[in-house]
């Protein structure tokens, strides 16, 4: 789903306000992006859901565990496929037989979200099982809204090398830049604002939207939206693959839209799940 014109305007004005500065923000679709989603979601929880989250997670709430699913990946490598889905670039929709079969059938992010939601809703399960399901949901709902987590080509962009304003090497790991890393760590940095200010911008935009302007859709719809955004925006690369202002101006509103919708949808999912008896 393309971002609305109002969100495009809000994010572009935000970009203009700081484009001439040289801050050193720590923003991206990585740890900060997941915290933004969790913070937005937490602000939209109904009382019963907030209480349910507190019973399972204790103090700290959703943002405190937003990156837990990434932190455990080295110790639990079997969870790695739960973070993405392999929809080919030349396909229009999600096909579980085709897209959720590698390396193990049923182990993609779409299936994982659907599975963990059922565990969270099942009050016969242990508190430990339900708390773990909740922590996975907080993170994976964010992942499915990242466009390159829903694209098979070039391994979700990780195998597609690019330049960032002429620079070939990512200073964070001293490896060549790839498109996926750009969307994880660079696009929002171009806005040059704090995590709190960026979260506030997205929250303010969401608060101004009518309910009908924020259709929830299914988990499969979310994957299809991200896949489309990957094709129409993330992969709109200059011929020399040297990403600069034009690319980032086009990409920032899409990232903002995906983060905002992820937060709103996570809140709706938790409100509905904790409401069930």
Structural commentary:
This protein is an all-alpha fold and 277 residues long. It has one domain: P1 Nuclease (Orthogonal Bundle), CATH 1.10.575. The protein has twelve helices and four strands, in the order ααααααααβββαααβα. The strands form two sheets. Strands 1-4 form a two-stranded parallel ribbon. The protein has a two-stranded antiparallel sheet with strand order 2-3. The longest helix has 31 residues. It is globular, with a radius of gyration of 18 Å. The two termini are 33 Å apart. About 5% of the residues have low confidence.
Primary descriptors:
277 residues, mainly alpha, P1 Nuclease, two-stranded parallel sheet, two-stranded antiparallel sheet, 12 helices, 4 strands, 53% helix, globular
Short overview:
The chain has twelve helices and four strands, in the order ααααααααβββαααβα. The protein is mainly alpha-helical and 277 residues long.
